[in-house]
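Lab meeting tomorrow. Look over both lines:
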Amino acid sequence: ILGEGPLWDWRTGDLFWIDIRRQQIFRHNLKSGQQTGQWTTSERIGCIGLTGTPETLLVAAGLTISLMNLATGDSTVLADLSAGRDRQRFNDGKVDSAGRLWVGTMHNTIREPRGTFYRVSTDMDFQKQFGDFVIPNSVCMSPDDKTLYFADSWQRTIWAFDFDIDAGKISNRRVFCDLTEHTGQPDGSTVDSDGYVWTAMYGMSQVIRFDPSGKVDRVIELPASQLTCVAFGGENLDTLFVTSARQNLTPEQLEAEPLAGALFAFKTDVKGLPEAKFGG
């Protein structure tokens, strides 16, 4: 299991999350406590996003961006970047409040700095922002839409950019948080309504909340070492959902971590932000 990409649909009370290795998307209804859907894709999924229709999900898998009809499981391909890009795929991404997708690619060796970060408009116009990174993660935006965050897990660094939401432009790249002294890597992140950044630390059993200046505000310990991504949800947007992974753990490690690969949830004293919809 490589759990990733928790996504809360505030319109329906459903939580989506993905298993990258099994190429699956799951839907869980919080009120009923039941899994209400499961879908399999033809390639590894990088990220998912809401659209204007609750029964349609934006899916970035392999190097293809599609709209998936959740009622039928059918997908409509919007864009395919796979030509000439062997062993590459989309990874982390996020829809901004103007309805655009910001998403990074990576090489499957997870060692080569061949990633590219794109801004993708609703008409599938791909605008390259920058490249030369290994594992794109932590894509999220501040509540005032003035800052965009991005991490390269391989470099253990989260950067911040000035963000012009109207023009769809980022500039003034700077280090938000240098985590090279940590044993873990920054994986998926989200921002709360106070503008603090919550980051799942892969390899160290922690979710860290950073203040807007990049300083550690609090640390939450969870019983799984490979935490992968975080998202706010629940009726009041005050529940933090955290995905995790079992991949590459030894039998001894799995015995010590029986909850590795689990989806965690806990209440917080702050609220998140409702997820934006692709296309606005």
Notes: Residues 251-256 form the longest helix (6 residues). The chain is about 0% helix and 55% strand. The chain has a mean pLDDT of 97.
